[in-house]
Amino acid sequence: MRRAKLPVGEFTATIESLTLEGRGVTHLDGKATFIDRALPGETVRFVYTARKKQFDEGDTVAIEQPSPDRVVPGCPHFDQCGACTMQHLAAEQQIAFKQQSLLDQLERIGKTPPASVLPPLTDAVWGYRRRARLGVRFVEKKQRLLIGFRERNSHFLADLTRCAVLDPRVGERLTDLADALNTLDIKRQIPQIEVSCSDDRVALVIRHLAPLEAADRERLSAVGQSFGYDLYLQSGGPATVTPLDPATVQPLVDHHPSYGVAIGFAPLDFTQVHAGINRKMVQQAIDLLGVTEQDRVLDLFAGLGNFTLPLARRAAQVTAVELDAAMVARGAAAAAANGIHNTLHVVGDLFTPDAGQDWLNQPYDLVLLDPPRAGAEAMMPHIARLKPRRIVYVSCHPGTLARDAHALVHEHGYRLVAAGVMNMFPHTAHIESMAVFEPAS
Predict the structure, then answer these.
(1) What is the 3-state secondary structure (H, E, C) of the chain?
(2) What is the pLDDT of residue 3?
(3) How many of the other CB atoms lie within 10 Å of CB of 249?
(4) Which fold has domain 93-124+270-439?
């Protein structure tokens, strides 16, 4: 199919609203146009970047009348890098946008506005990101290595010197790290680096498409020592991840100081990217559940026990269900390491649940779930059948939360007591939220 020819030159538009992805919306000759780096109320000059049957796309080149909510982006690479699309919007307005987006989707998709709105959870908005997948590419024309994220609307890597949202132990050293890896013989065969940080450790998993010879191993070992990083190598799938020097690496640990809990994790394990928000999120979830020492709690999509172990400090028993058997085993080990003995860790497929499983036929007073973006549609009737007195749903996608809320409210006799957002990913359009449900009668 031939692409539509793009209009040549700059055009002027007044921005009406924002899309869920944070792009400005305008209508030109009755056709919607989505414009990057533009805010509601602004008059901007833009260029077209794509034309489609239902809508067009563009990118701002100049602001003729700025919004009062516009701020100077905190990262010098904002105009090139595609990772953080909302740095030009004041942080408090980002939160207001996310809160309203959540409420709009609960109303539109879920047909169920919350009885009350939870105050948004906020924390640091710079240097917060403890997990990231960084692209790596050796550019022949520049004869040097680039490390970072893709350019805006492009498959090319942005030429970054720093990243303001990454943990500064990595984000402020991108150039130094790129220069160090540029000395490797296999620099052309490194496509990505996984970053994983805890309070006191930084681990980098270096994906490599060619074997490392002894000289490159020595160079990498020197890089790890110089930067204070624990380095891991990955030659294939996740199972191939191994420490470069097993004698020097230390465990990564997530801490919940309020609950006396420390959870060890491997560099590729799923953990929350924002430690400050995560601790507040766990606290809020437990408070909203109203856990007592007599309660039996069901924790679904439990992972390594981010909610399970703190819950166990308050409840009589917590049953943690997770699909990944390795994570279930590590969650059980973490409970034991923390001296917690009132948890049950179960492997369970929550997308195609088996009603005959023993854990689904036990009594529970409370249910907490933290599903991936796909939500937990298949679990809604099973949760309702258990008749918990309260459900707390932690969501990373407001659309699937709204869909599942519709089922709980309109099919299973629950009411949406409260909902609100958590700023887990500042300067992006990503929306994390929490909702509370109780029986309607």
Answers:
(1) CCCCCCCCCCEEEECCEECCCCCEEEEECCEEEEEECCCCCCEEEEEEEEECCCEEEEEEEEEEECCCCECCCCCCCCCCECCCCCCCECHHHHHHHHHHHHHHHHHHCCCCCCCEECCCECCCCCCCECEEEEEEEEECCCCEEEEECEECCCCCECCCCCCCCECHHHHCCHHHHHHHHCCCCCHHHCCEEEEEECCCCEEEEEECCCCCCHHHHHHHHHHHHHHCCEEEEECCCHHHCEECCCCCCCCEEEEEHHHCEEEEECCCCCCCCCHHHHHHHHHHHHHHHCCCCCCEEEEECCCCCCCHHHHHCCCCEEEEEECCHHHHHHHHHHHHHCCCCCEEEEECCCCCCCCCCHHHHCCCCEEEECCCCCCCHHHHHHHHHHCCCEEEEEECCHHHHHHHHHHHHHCCCEEEEEEEEECCCCCCCCCEEEEEEEECC
(2) 62
(3) 18
(4) Rossmann fold (3.40.50)
Domain with CATH 2.40.50.1070 in the chain: 131-197+202-250
pTM of the shown model:
0.94
Dist. CA 178–CA 201, nearest whole Å: 20
The fourth-level CATH superfamily of domain 11-70 is Nucleic acid-binding proteins (2.40.50.140)
Q: Which residues are catalytic?
A: 396
Task: Provide CATH 3.40.50.150 ranges for the chain.
Answer: 93-124+270-439
How many C-beta atoms lie closer than 10 Å to residue 427's C-beta?
A: 26
CATH 2.40.50.140 occupies which residues in the chain?
11-70
Q: What whole-number distance in Å separates Cα of residue 60 and Cα of residue 44?
A: 6
Separation of first and last alpha carbons in the chain: 56
The per-residue pLDDT for 1 is: 46
Give me the average pLDDT of each 10-residue run along the chain (441 residues).
Answer: 76 94 93 96 96 94 97 93 93 96 97 97 97 96 94 89 97 96 96 97 98 96 96 96 94 96 95 97 98 98 98 98 95 97 97 94 97 97 97 98 98 98 96 98 83
Question: What CATH number should be reported for the domain whose range is 131-197+202-250?
Answer: 2.40.50.1070
